[in-house]
Amino acid sequence: MVRDHRVSQGFSTRRLAAAAGVSQPFLSNVENGRTMVSVPSLYRIAAALGVVPSELMPSDDQTTIVIRAGQSVVDHGAPPLAVEQDDQGRTELIRAARGRVIEAYRFDLPPGLPETQWYEHLGEDFVHVLEGRLRLSSGARVFELGPGDSLWLDGRIPHRWSTAADNEGLIRLLLVTAADNK
Hints:
Layout lengths: L1 H7 L4 H8 L3 H8 L7 H11 L33 E4 L2 E7 L6 E8 L14 E8 L2 E5 L2 E5 L4 E5 L4 E4 L8 E8 L4
Antiparallel strand pairs: 1-2, 2-3, 3-9, 4-7, 4-9, 5-6, 5-8
């Protein structure tokens, strides 16, 4: 899907890579399905193309999809960004598809995670904390969230999160983002 959007807009791989802040070889590997794209990279590529991230996902013509506990979205044809593990925790894409406005992610964050980079995008985010405590900054406002707490935010406002070092175990949360295709 990245290649289709890039070509339709007349971008070379070098131009798109520069605009998205990724290397040209990495972008080529993403286009050819040889590498897993991280969530931040997916958002940067989508922003450089002027599309919402779900537009870069494979088409899905099913109207109702059930993913049972223990199944992976890969079992349902999702792209290889389904699970990402790094020093900032584990991110799992639960569901997203081209033409859909909702993307759902589950995050398992470690205690003591410093503030992440700022994110901003068209659309809305809904965060629900399943376990642990999360500190979420949205613009100049800071919110402390605990198990069962939820927060909605306008994605156009820069936002990021961190976790306290005294959390016991992983901090688990659900992020649902709804794209604004306007």
